[in-house]
């Protein structure tokens, strides 16, 4: 992560996430649920195993004469 992305991440945490966490618990819970629903489709074991197999076999084939 470069400095620009890190700065933007911290800005969002400070201005949006943390105030919501401390002052609007119900809204924060809804934000967490939405985030899990959106990202859960990508961050799962099926995708992880498929990506691992693709990368491992691709590297293995590149090493073969």
Q: How many beta strands in the DSSP annotation?
A: 0
Spans of at least 5 consecutive residues whose pLDDT stays below 50 are none
Net shape = elongated
Beta percentage is: under 5%
Radius of gyration: 19 Å
Give the SSE layout.
Elements (H helix, E strand, L loop, with lengths): L2 H21 L1 H16 L4 H19 L2
Helix pairs in contact: 1-2
Explain what you see:
- With 65 residues, the protein is an all-alpha fold.
- It has one domain (3-63).
- The chain contains three helices and no strands.
- Helix 1 crosses helix 2.
- It is elongated.
- The two termini are 36 Å apart.
The gist of it:
With 65 residues, the chain is an all-alpha fold. Helix content is 86%, strand content 0%.
What characteristics describe this protein?
65 residues, single chain, mainly alpha
């Amino acid at each position: 992560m470069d400095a620009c992305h890190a700065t933007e991440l911290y800005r969002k945490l400070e201005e949006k996430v943390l105030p919501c966490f401390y002052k609007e618990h119900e809204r924060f819970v809804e934000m967490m649920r939405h985030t899990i629903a959106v990202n859960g489709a990508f961050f799962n074991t099926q995708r992880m195993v498929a990506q691992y197999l693709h990368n491992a076999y691709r590297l293995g084939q590149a090493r073969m004469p």
